[in-house]
Design a protein that fits this description.
single chain; alpha/beta; 9-stranded mixed sheet; about 15% strand; disordered N terminus
């Protein structure tokens, strides 16, 4: 999640190949009448954590971070892309320039579904320069990746079209996601029936926060957590500070999940969620200690399952 400093960076975008970003027809659609999978699968938290271990290794091998314009970011993108390509997704890399450095978005389309009704899930893949960014935002990136891989494993062919994205330069002011949204025509933008954003979902002293933007998306997440008996609160700390903002500003319905950053957990929140009152949800926010040790497995597991639940429910 980016620092709350509006207008800190202005991007100069440069076009790259974007064959599927505009939501065109995709080859390999499922046969007409093929049934969709009835329920979302459980997302193995061990798989999500394995992706985080890989992102940590990439950061360690590349100056300790995965920041925009640095080798660690590109290596992170290459890792995610290879997994998706092997799983049968059509991937597209979109290139832009910000702060004098080249940045990249990765977009993955799953064959089939009505491309006039696109359910899109995304997360930012970049870290700050101070550290590896494993909670912020390896956690969201890994959960979205593992949900996409679960789509492939299930052979899921929903009514709507599924698209997944990993954004660059979010930490510089949602640069990558803004570039993507601005690259779409009005018609292509209108094809996105919902954008789901996942930024920091494994905080070590977690809360369970749901975006209160689109009512249908909000209801979906709240239903999932109600089924677990886990209370939620409306997300306010990151409002307008992550990659849902460009979509929302363009009129696309948005929603998402968040487990908290540098705000302090209250006594009431600790009473219902556990953890420690008086401490930040993530004391390592934007710091060098945001490593694989900075993850709450329960929060990561619940939120990863919630990602898949929403993707399945909203794409039927």
């Amino acid at each position: 999640m980016k620092f709350s400093v509006p207008g800190r960076v202005t991007a100069t975008a440069v076009v790259a190949t974007v064959s599927l970003l505009a939501g065109g027809s995709i080859a390999g659609a499922a046969p007409a009448g093929q049934p969709a999978v009835a329920a979302a699968p459980d997302i193995p938290v061990a798989n999500v954590k394995a992706h985080l271990t890989q992102l940590q290794s990439i950061a360690t091998a590349n100056g300790g971070n995965r920041a925009h314009g640095r080798t660690g970011y590109k290596a992170s993108l290459d890792y995610v892309k290879a997994k998706l390509d092997a799983a049968g997704f059509t991937t597209t890399v979109q290139q832009f320039t910000s702060s004098g450095r080249t940045g990249y978005n990765l977009v993955a389309d799953w064959p089939g579904g009505d491309t006039n009704q696109v359910v899109m899930s995304g997360s930012h893949l970049d870290s700050v320069t101070a550290g590896a960014g494993i909670n912020d935002n390896g956690s969201g990136s890994a959960a979205v990746l593992e949900t996409a891989l679960a789509v492939s494993r299930a052979g899921y062919h929903p009514t709507k079209h599924l698209r997944f994205a990993w954004w660059g330069a979010e930490e510089l002011g949602m640069v990558g996601s803004k570039y993507y949204v601005n690259s779409l025509s009005t018609a292509n933008r209108s094809q996105i029936s919902g954008y789901l954003n996942f930024d920091m979902i494994g905080s070590p002293n977690p809360g369970y926060f749901v975006y209160d933007d689109d009512p249908a998306i909000e209801k979906t997440f709240k239903e999932y957590y109600a089924g677990l008996g886990v209370p939620t609160e409306i997300e306010t700390e990151g409002d307008g500070r992550s990659d849902h903002a460009p979509f929302k500003n363009a009129g696309v319905p948005v929603g998402g999940l968040f487990s908290g950053a540098d705000y302090t957990k209250t006594s009431a929140q600790a009473a219902k969620w556990g953890g420690t009152a008086g401490l930040a949800f993530d004391r390592c926010y934007h710091s060098s200690c945001d490593t694989t040790a900075n993850i709450n497995d329960t929060a990561l597991d619940r939120n990863s399952d919630a990602v898949a639940y929403a993707v399945w429910e909203l794409s039927r």
